[in-house]
Amino acid sequence: MTSQKDYWDKKITEWSSASYGRKSSISFLEKVATYFRSVDKRKDAAIKIISPLIKNKVILDLGCGLGEFAFGILRYKPKKVIALDISPNAVKQARLFAKKKKIHGKVRFEVSDVVKTKKLPESDIVIGLGFIDYLTLPQLKNLFRMIGKKPYLFSCFEKKFSLFNLLHNIYLISQNCPGAYKHTRSEIRNIVPKGMKLSFITKDGLLFITNLHES
Ligand SMILES: C[S@@+](CC[C@H](N)C(=O)[O-])C[C@H]1O[C@@H](n2cnc3c(N)ncnc32)[C@H](O)[C@@H]1O
């Protein structure tokens, strides 16, 4: 079976080009999937939520892909962005782009399987867009444990009956995605460590989990 790393190594260029509207050869299926996923809108919504908190902070972006979110927040003057991804291909492309744009001093891209890591890099705020969708509940529980009391924001696809979820699941099967999970709100609430805050918030029609309150 394909690993998450191999899946994303192959997939990330087309996924990212389709999701962020870059010119590239994109299959019909990916175009349709992109229409439903609203990835670019999700990035903008996340930026709206956390931009007031970013200045002089170290931001940790988990499952950063080609770095669209990491690059998108630089204008809010973080101290640094650390962006991790399991895919060496994604990290290579993100680094090249950062170098080309001469912004590599502000954003550090690293290959890392966040599921296997024992400790996250030091940071002030943890974020992940389209990331926890690839974590089982025990893996998500472990991630919450590593985050501790830090502010966090994750986009989230909720497990419930909907046309979107039906089509999304068909898409994932057709792509041989090695592991993608949707959890219910109560499943997520049940694995949050004692004392950790968690709210479900909707911004521009997109669902996030966070311990931040919207400003
Ligand atoms: C749906 S893409 C989202 C990319 C980016 N966050 C965005 O919104 O444009 C999911 C990303 O998570 C990464 N990923 C999946 N599992 C991971 C893991 N265990 N550790 C680190 N990255 C992972 C994939 O390589 C992929 O780049």
From TrEMBL:
Start and end residues of each Methyltransferase domain: 55-135
SUPFAM superfamilies per record: S-adenosyl-L-methionine-dependent methyltransferases
InterPro entries: Methyltranfer_dom (IPR025714), SAM-dependent_MTases_sf (IPR029063)
Pfam family, one: Methyltransf_31
Protein name: Methyltransferase domain-containing protein
Organism: Candidatus Roizmanbacteria bacterium RIFCSPLOWO2_01_FULL_40_42
Upper taxonomic lineage: Bacteria, Candidatus Roizmaniibacteriota
